[in-house]
Fold this sequence. Notes:
transport; mainly alpha; globular; ABC_transpt_DrrB/DrrC; antibiotic resistance; Transport permease protein; transmembrane
Amino acid sequence: MGCYLATTVRILKQLRADRRTVAMIVLVPALLMTLLYFVYKNYPTLPHQPRLFDRIGITMLGILPFVVMFLITAIAMQRERVSGTLERLMTTPLAKLDLLAGYGTAFSVAAAVQAGVACLVAFWLLGLSAAGSPALVVLIAIVDAVLGVALGLLASAFARTEFQAVQFMPVIVLPQFFLCGLLVPRGQLPGWLEAISNVLPLSYAVDALQQVSTHTGVTGLMWRDILVVAVFAAVALGLGAATLRRRTA
């Protein structure tokens, strides 16, 4: 427990000192949501129908933190490896799971701040509306961001350079974006693509956000979807620990 806490504190201090990374974590999703608002600002809306910004924006509140945290975590972890910090840590009795859990916790704290800021901007500044509580959207956005952290840590275990870490994005992130139900409802996908979408965690995150969008209260399906995403994150973290190399070369 002591090693885990020490790792978490160290990474949080490093993040606090890196103002550019902090700015990217906190501001990028909020700025992209603002851009999305102006893209759809003049889009015609049918009577008694939600604005297109409302339908797409609530989904993007889950997708953007996921994408941003995946990239930042994968690159940051790879930078630790290239600098030799990770290899020095792995020569100590520090368990690999404690190491990755510390990284995951630190970046998850940053993810919580990121999700809170993005939802604050979307709901209170841009007027995003949903049938359910904005607090549920914040919760789901945080879980999605933590999933991005866990998958970023897993991807970094297989990369040897920062460029290779970025190359995992088309493999891990983009297929989930295409099949999550944002572009086309999953039920309208070809059968084999729908089957693939059913085993991708981002699909369940989008489903949970759509539940909040259309229901005034908490639903059992929403909690199931959140649990599925959380389990995926935990499994990714465990796989990352199992595949983490003790040497960089």
